[in-house]
Design goal:
4-stranded antiparallel sheet, 119 residues, 56% strand, mainly beta
Length: 119
C-alpha cells in the first residue's frame, strides 16, 4: 500500500511562486511514475507534470512549460513542484498521484491542496 499527502498550497498573487510537496509512504518501491494533476471548478482533472520515480524522465503540460518544475527526493520519498510566474488560470486543487509498477492507470491519489492565484 502507498499513501500520498500533499502540502504547500495557498493564496498567491499573479506572478508569484509556490512550491507544493507530496510525501509518499508505504511500499514506495512499487511506484513507477509520480505526477501532479489539477482540477479547476467546473473543469476536468488534468495532468500537469510527471516524473519517473526511479529515473529522471519528465512530462509537462504545454501551458506550464518554463514555469513549473517537477522534482523528487527519493531518500525522503517526496515529490515537489515549483510553480513560478503563476497566473489566475493556474487556480485549482492540485493532487499528487502515483502509478504503481504494472498498472496502467494512476491508482494512488493524495487528498489535494488548493492553489489560488489572484489577479
Amino acid at each position: 500500500q502507498v499513501s500520498l499527502v500533499e502540502s504547500g498550497g495557498g493564496l498567491v498573487q499573479a506572478g508569484g511562486s509556490l512550491r507544493l510537496s507530496c510525501a509518499a509512504s508505504g511500499r514506495t518501491d512499487r511506484i513507477a511514475v509520480v505526477a501532479w494533476f489539477r482540477q479547476a471548478p467546473g473543469k476536468e482533472r488534468e495532468l500537469v507534470a510527471s516524473i519517473q520515480w526511479s529515473g529522471s524522465g519528465t512530462y509537462y503540460k504545454d501551458s506550464v512549460k518554463g514555469r513549473f518544475t517537477i522534482s523528487k527526493d527519493n531518500p525522503k520519498n517526496t515529490l515537489y513542484v515549483q510553480m513560478n510566474s503563476l497566473k489566475p488560470e493556474d487556480t485549482a486543487v492540485y493532487y499528487c498521484a502515483a502509478r504503481l509498477r504494472g498498472a496502467v492507470d494512476w491508482n494512488v491519489w493524495g487528498q489535494g491542496t488548493q492553489v489560488t492565484v489572484s489577479s
